[in-house]
Amino acid sequence: MAKMNPCFLDLKENYLFKEISKQVNAYTSAHPDNKIIKMGIGDVTQPLAPVVIEAMKKAVDEMGRKETFRGYEDSGQGYGFLREAVKGYYEKRGVSLDCGEIFISDGAKSDSGNINDIFDSSCTVLVTDPAYPVYVDSNTMGGKTIKYADSTPENGFAAMPPEYPADLIYLCSPNNPTGSVYTREQLKKWVDYALKNKAVIVFDAAYEAFITDPELPRSIFEIEGSRECAIEICSLSKTAGFTGTRCGYTIVPEELMFYAPDGSCHSVRKIWARRQGSKFNGVSYPVQRAAEAVFTDEGIRQCAEIIKYYLDNAAIMIKTFRKLNISYTGGTNSPYIWFRCPDGMGSWDFFHKLLNEAEVVGTPGEGFGKNGEGWFRMTAFGSREKTVEAMERLEKMLSK
Does 283 have pLDDT greater than 90? Predict the structure, then answer.
């Protein structure tokens, strides 16, 4: 008789964003003529940059000719041209990588969950709370022990290392959901903590392109000692609008090692390469060519214009929260605004009020962890017109 992995029974019944979608669909069915403004999930609304589209079209044409057709790529890590492009992107920020350390993926969400495959179920996993649900869900599926480092208003929603040890640490900066960004000094404390405990940091840098303050690090590899204790995961979903195109990358340094049960030391990069070779078959050639274009000078310029559009949306939202005297974080170096629910309301209570009275959708903070209760997340990824209208609806609702 086939038996299931019992760890799946420890998961919540619905993934957070599936639950939100379920409730929004029910409301839409009951009010089919009403216009709901969705600011809940981090899905982009602006089209891909022209340079990206041209590169993809050219690659598709190549796939239609015998002499330029491509099948499986040889390395299992992504085409060399894209890994070279990623390497060059990091070099512009003073971070040196080897192409063999770069693994092309179909997005940060996949690798954030899949990376725990190579770590033993006995590992203690440390997750900041609030946190992106995939960190918790994927490790729950793997039967690992999960502990939490509190992100609260008192520490600017930037949790710092605890007194107790951990084996695997998930950090996200700029943070999803809170929009907070770690400083160099704060990340150095996390790196020192990981080195002391022989732990591995999984650093989610999916929103690094939204950092406008040059003093803030955009990669953990800008921090001394990080190559001995960190993995960096990034995505083009928000950097370049690849939410529907799917491409990202994971960086595993040569220096990063971990230990087998018998005490022997092994390369994390080699084990991850072995895992990917068996369980992942790569990102399509046209998509990788499109991704390569993102890292050209023109691609960086065009994508920066799109990011500015979203940050301008965030500025409009911030203006409204200030006017309403609502406490918030994020929006300056992040596409997310994280704010306290008005009148002491709970997260889900405010979700329903906002949906039913203003027909605007956001994300209840409670869905990201216990420290999210009483807080709420909105994204700046909408259109300018809908962002303005949503803020007008919010202000009208709260002025009643």
Answer: yes
Taking a C-beta distance cutoff of 8 angstroms, is the pair 171, 203 a contact? yes
Measured distance CA(51)–CA(70) in Å, rounded: 21
Task: Identify the residue with better confidence: 42 or 284.
Answer: 284
Within 8 A by CB and 6+ apart from 46, the residues are: 241, 306, 309, 310
Q: Do 327 and 340 form a contact (C-beta atoms < 8 A)?
A: yes
Tokens representing residue 23 in the block: 């409730």
Rounded distance between C-alpha atoms, residue 364 and residue 226, angstroms: 33
Average pLDDT, the chain: 95
User: Residue 344, by phi and psi: left (phi above 0), alpha (psi -120 to 50) or beta?
Assistant: left
What are the pLDDT digits (tens) for 365-388? 999 999 999 999 999 999 999 999
Average of pLDDT values for 341-366?
96
115, 250 contact by CB (below 8 A): yes
* β 124-129/168-172 pair status: parallel
Q: How far apart are CA 118 and CA 293, in angstroms?
A: 32
Q: How many CB atoms lie within 10 A of CB 146?
A: 19
H-helix or E-strand spanning residue 60: helix 50-63
pLDDT at 400 over 80: no
Burial of 244 (0-12, 13-18, 19+ CB in 10 A): exposed
- Of residues 13 and 298, the one with the higher pLDDT is 298
Terminal CA-CA length for the chain: 60
How big is the CA angle at 89 (ends 87 and 91), to the nearest 5 degrees? Answer: 70
Question: What is the pLDDT confidence band of residue 311, given thresholds at 50, 70 and 90?
Answer: very high
**How many CB atoms lie under 10 A from the CB of residue 67?**
5
H-type helices in 240-383, by residue range?
268-279, 285-294, 297-323, 347-353
Partnered with residue 105 across adjacent β-strands are 248
